[in-house]
Amino acid sequence: MKLEVTLRHLNQGDYEDVRDYVCNPEVAKYLTWQVYTQEKDVRDYFNKSLPKIACPDEVLGIEYQGKMIGTVHLILRQGNFIQMGFGITPHLWGQGIGTKTLVVILSHIQNTEWSKISKEIWADIHQNNIYAAKTLEKGGFILQKPGVELNRNRFTLKIA
Length: 160
Fold this sequence. Notes:
This protein is of the alpha+beta class. Helix content is 31%, strand content 35%.
């Protein structure tokens, strides 16, 4: 089966899929937020993500087989570095979807205004997330700053 992964901006109809993802404790243990347990907090996160549709702060949904399975956040840091973070729902881990998602994200960056602003991408991941580290390394990222933050390692990629 071909792994068709696409990115698109979020819309109101994505709320339930995003809710399932951001409320999942397996996902949250590897990301920068705590698991959302209150509906109000989920709604606030979602509503803050909706208008983030372009550089310097963009949130995209990751879609696979017609369902929103995760999100990507791109944000401009220190004026000229792209910080990238993404995650997918755990029932799809280990199936190559993260690697395909990374390819699609890098293509998005190369084909939008992001590539005009920055030539380096940062990805900070939880030090215990060995699968994310392997995915980033397959995409050309290198470990630049182990322990950049508590329990986080920074991987970087120079782009042309």
